[in-house]
Amino acid sequence: MNSQLLVLASTSIYRCELLKRLQLPFETATPDVDETALPGELARATSVRLAQEKARAVAAKYPDALIIGSDQVALLEGRQLGKPLNHDNAVKQLRAMRGKTTCFYTAVALLNSKTGNIQTEVAENYVTLRDLSDAEIEGYLLREQPYHCAGSAKSEGLGIALMSKMSGDDPNALIGLPLILLSEMLRRENVHLF
Fold first, then answer.
1. Angle at Cα 29 formed by Cα 60 and Cα 172, nearest 5°?
2. Which regions of the chain does DSSP assign to beta strands (E)?
3. Which helix (H) or strand (E) holds 50?
4. Any bridge partners for residue 118, and if so which?
5. Active site amino acids
6. Closest by alpha carbon to 91, among 155, 144, 158, 138?
7. How far apart are CA 137 and CA 77, in angstroms?
8. pLDDT-based confidence at 156, cuts 50/70/90?
9. pTM value?
10. CA 188, CA 111: separation in Å to the nearest integer?
11. Lowest-pLDDT range of 55-59, 65-69, 156-160
12. What is the pLDDT of residues 109-128, one digit of tens each?
């Protein structure tokens, strides 16, 4: 069993709660990374780059650790949807998404800060929203305020009622951390879950 410290490079309470499901001790650290997509960068590439940057951003503080970075980017009809950050942007996102399918790329990076080895994987999940009325969008946003979630909806909360269909690699990835992929990555670093 690997005895290295496990660090989640995230301040997301959702990622923290997900990681707790693996029943491994871990610390959290703030990665302080600019999440803006680069000009011309594809959504999947943005998620990969940001997951890796988040892991690397805390590596100096943890020189002998396994550091987890994760990022999610939504793609609707060729356009990236990030975190809306406010009510007006969330309304625009949900209006654009209604009746359509959005792809959510959730990248996870596992950095061994002692060896420098980094593994990165991406889970793809597809979400189709119902053809929502403006009143439904407004009602949802006022109740849940998902302004720090890519795509403006929390599938782990009331946002599930907005959706008509979900499919993909890992339902946990939609919440923010692909545990199926992460479990395999941890095994490659000799972290045994059982």
1. 125
2. 5-9, 27-29, 65-76, 79-81, 101-112, 118-129, 163-168
3. helix 43-57
4. 111
5. 71
6. 138
7. 20
8. confident
9. 0.92
10. 12
11. 156-160
12. 999 999 999 999 999 999 99
